Amino acid sequence: MTDDSVPIALSPKWQADDREPPPMLGDERAVLLGHVEWYRRTFELKCTGVPPARLSERGMPPSTMSLHGIVRHLAAVERWWFQIQFAGLDVPMLFYTDDEPNLDFDGLDGDVTAELELWRTECARSREIVAAAALDDTGTRKNTGEPFTLRWLLLHHATEYARHCGHADLLREAIDGATGE
User: What is the dotted CATH code of the domain comprising 28-176?
Assistant: First the structure.
């Protein structure tokens, strides 16, 4: 039982936080897309204001994870899932080779500012693909041949971002102490 007279402490908001909260009411598509967009914007806010050189810091040893690596990983995830697996487009994978499957996290020699812009471009392309599809439209997992629906992909994508936003929380706090929801 809770005492309604006690105020609930809210997590601090990020500076320049212009996110719209995901809808709590609405149709399935609006709720799924609202959550995906919330987490995309949340991740971007966790990178905002960090000097580019510091985005590559690996602040949680022994993990090799960095904000820069997560940017690269999420750009690759956007392309892999929406363009390659769902839409079936023949485009090259990002930050991956058979010899270096962890290139997204390990190869931080790229320009992080350009890679943030690449991530934004990949998100925009994913939005275009989603806008042209119905929730029951299917893609095919390349490694197993299993079909999946756009509905499943959006839920999977929201959980992928939620997980990496948790990583970004810790990395950002290690860089400059900034925290936020």
Answer: 1.20.120.450
